[in-house]
Amino acid sequence: IINSDQNRLIGYVRVSQDKADFNETLHKLDLGLGGGVVIALALSGIGGVWLTRQAMQPIEESFQRLQQFTADASHELRSPLMAVKSNATVALKYPEGMRETDAEKFQAIASATNQMTRLTEDLLLLARTGKVKNHQMENLDLTKILADLVQLYKPQAIAKQIEFKSQFTENLYLMGDAVELTRLFTNLIDNALHYTPSFGVIEIKTSRIAAYIDVIVQDTGVGIAPENINLVFERFWRADQSRSYWAGGSGLGLAIAQAIAQKHNGTITLTSRLLVGSCFTVRFSTST
User: I need a surface site. Which of 40, 98, 113, 123 has the fewest CB within 10 A?
Assistant: First the structure.
C-alpha cells in the first residue's frame, strides 16, 4: 500500500485462493478425457472387427460355394468316367477283330480316363479337406508307415537306377489318419521319383526334436528355382522346367500333401536349388 500524501510504501495486501477445487476439476477433466479416448478406441476396434466380418462374409460364402461345387462336380464325374473306363477296359480285354489303330485309340482312352479319375479324386479330397473331421484318428507308428512305403517304391527306384535310402528313428508315434498320412508321403515320394534323374539319390529320414517329429524327403533331382519355391504348393502350379506336367500327374500332389499335413497340425517346408535337388521337411507336433 502506498501513502497517497507522501507517496511511500506503507504496507502490503496479499490476496490468495485455495486451488484444491481447481485441481480437482482438472483431475476430473483428465479422467473424463482419458476414459473417452479408451471408450472411443474400444468402439472403433469393435466396429472394425464387425466391418471386417461383414466384408469377409460374402468372400467366405463364395469360397464355401466353390468348395461345394468342386466336391459335387468331382462326385458326379466319377460315374461317367467309370463307365468309360470299364468299356475301354473290356474292349482291350477282347482285341479279336479289332484293328491295331483302334486298339491304340482305346488305350489312349483308358489312359486319359485313369488320369481324369485321379484328378477328380484329388479335387474331391481337397474340397473335403478341412470340412470333414477325422473319424479314424489313432495312435500310429509313423516309422512303420514310412518303411512300408520305402519297400513299395524301391522297385520303381531300382528300375530307374535311383539309389533309394532311408534312415528311420524307432518308435515315432503320432495321432493321425493312416490312409491320409500314407497319401501325404506317397505324394512326396512320387514327386521325388519323377524329378530325380537316373543315378540320382532319394533319401527319407526321420528325427524327433523335443515335442516334434520331422520327416525329411530329399532328392538330387532337377530342383526348383528360388522364385518358384513359394508357389509349389499351389494347385495346378507347374514351371516349365522343374514342375512340368507328366503323364498320370494331376498337378495337385503337393497341394494335397500340404492340406493333409495341416489337417494333422503339421507343416511342410521346402528348400531347393535348381539342378541340385530338393528337400521337403514335414513337421508334426506330438503335444496335445
Answer: 40
